Amino acid sequence: MTSTIRKDWDTYFMDIAYMVSTRSQCPRRHVGAVLVQGKKLLGTAYNGAPMGVPDCTEAGCMIAEQLELVIHPDGTEEMVKKERCIRTIHAEQNLLLFTDRMDREGATVYVTDQPCWTCANMLANSGVKEIVFHRPYLKDADKVTALMSQLGITFRSLDHYQPPAETVMEPTP
Q1: CATH classification of 9-48+88-167 is 3.40.50.2000, yes or no?
Q2: Is the pLDDT at 171 greater than 70, yes or no?
Q3: Whole-structure pTM over 0.85, yes or no?
């Protein structure tokens, strides 16, 4: 009789988030998110254009640029240019749109990527108690981490996690 090693819950739910991300048509990044209450999966979502609207693979990305003032620990200031696609609804936003507030109270969100500032703000008001992510999003990492700490929301990175090979997006040339 062969014994199989059972995956831990973090790996199991992050695997599902990565599988969900394969539905994304975003040429820049595939992101998946899942909502979990206890050990029960309550919802899944991925990033993409609104339903019924051509996505970025059909109509191209809608890139918006914005400048952000960053104040470094030594007190120096720097203007940083950030680019983002405004055609796409983020996976976390879709997850919040398609799940009930009651289900989110005290729940955990597993997301393939660290939430951006906007998604972090939305998750902060959603009722979730924990956010678990794999890939960092360095543009907003410090302020998102500080926000979660301030609100007492557990914010964990699965640094040593390896996504299933069939879910890894090939970089856009």
Answers
A1: no
A2: no
A3: yes
